[in-house]
Design a protein that fits this description.
single chain; alpha/beta; 5-stranded parallel β-sheet; 4-stranded parallel β-sheet
Length: 293
């Protein structure tokens, strides 16, 4: 294997119901390639794959849970070998009180992987016993009994990602046509159908909001300038609040009737306005600009 020192590796493990899925989401947001329930026998091979020259993966997180308990001896040996070879290995262990885990399982009605047809509490206690070797070796142990999803995310950021948190946000602007439906990924939707529609101007109809004639027709209007000014002010007000919650991307959809003229021109204009500000990166996508139906 080569370049192991450049591959950051974290084992995510812990009790069922303690928050491993939420932890994986945080790791993915921090740029990790995550693999759930990897058989321990395959760990060395995965490392070799991602350590090859040209691999774009430099952060790897693997979830091991009680389903792999019979292979934990092999897992420990693999971790020892990787550490001795220079890999940066960390183990995160998530746990919670018996009462909290029982309540979570009762609310989801999912079967516990150890309890089978027996008492739920007995299954949880047996899982604690089986996972004890990993807990004893863990670099970070987090008790999620009193934590909600957002608090767990903050705890992970404070313990594992301290010093890596970004102070910038990506504002992705999507123009679209209401006649084709709302963009599913939008965090915020702005409606610009209050503006005159270039579709009804014969010479502008075949053009799009990317053409200067349409842009001038739309953006030069006082009401458009007022919209851009106020929309930018709102987004800039929200940026530090989103960053405080470690939300690093905000998707803003700007819609007109067909998504070819007004929304396109104003998405470009708003992006240009926001791009002048510190801590803000912008990206623009025009979903429906080539559609005419």
């Amino acid at each position: 294997m080569t370049a192991l020192k450049d591959l950051h590796f974290t084992v995510i493990t812990g009790l069922s119901g303690a928050g491993k899925s939420q932890a994986v989401a945080t790791f993915e947001d921090m740029g990790f390639f995550c693999i759930d329930n990897l058989p321990p026998q395959m760990l060395a091979g995965v490392f070799e794959l991602f350590s090859l020259e040209g691999s774009r993966v430099d952060r790897l997180a693997v979830v091991f849970d009680v389903r792999a308990a019979q292979y934990f001896d092999e897992l420990m040996r693999s971790l020892d070998d990787l550490t001795e070879g220079g890999a940066q290995c960390h183990i995160l262990f998530l746990e919670a009180s018996d009462e909290a885990l029982v309540a979570r399982y009762q609310s989801t009605r999912r079967p516990h992987p150890v309890a089978h047809d027996g008492p739920l509490l007995a299954g949880i206690q047996e899982e604690r016993r089986l996972l004890m070797p990993l807990r004893e070796r863990a670099d970070v142990v987090i008790d999620t009994t009193e934590l909600n999803v957002h608090e767990l995310r903050h705890r992970l950021q404070e313990t594992l990602f301290a010093g890596e948190l970004t102070n910038e946000i990506l504002v992705s602007l999507i123009s679209f046509g209401f006649k084709f439906g709302l963009p599913a990924e939008a965090d915020m939707v702005l409606d610009v159908r209050f503006l005159p529609n270039p579709h009804w101007v014969e010479e502008l109809r075949p053009l799009t909001g990317l053409d200067s004639a349409v842009r001038d027709f739309v953006v030069a209007r006082p009401e458009s300038q007022g919209f851009i000014e106020r929309a930018a002010a709102l987004l800039l007000y929200l940026v530090p609040l989103y960053l405080a919650e470690q939300k690093t991307q905000l998707v803003v959809a700007i819609g007109c009737t067909g998504g070819r003229h007004r929304s396109v021109a104003l998405a470009e204009a708003l992006a240009a306005c926001l791009a002048k500000e510190a801590h803000v990166q912008t990206a623009v996508r025009h979903r429906d600009v080539e559609r005419s139906g």
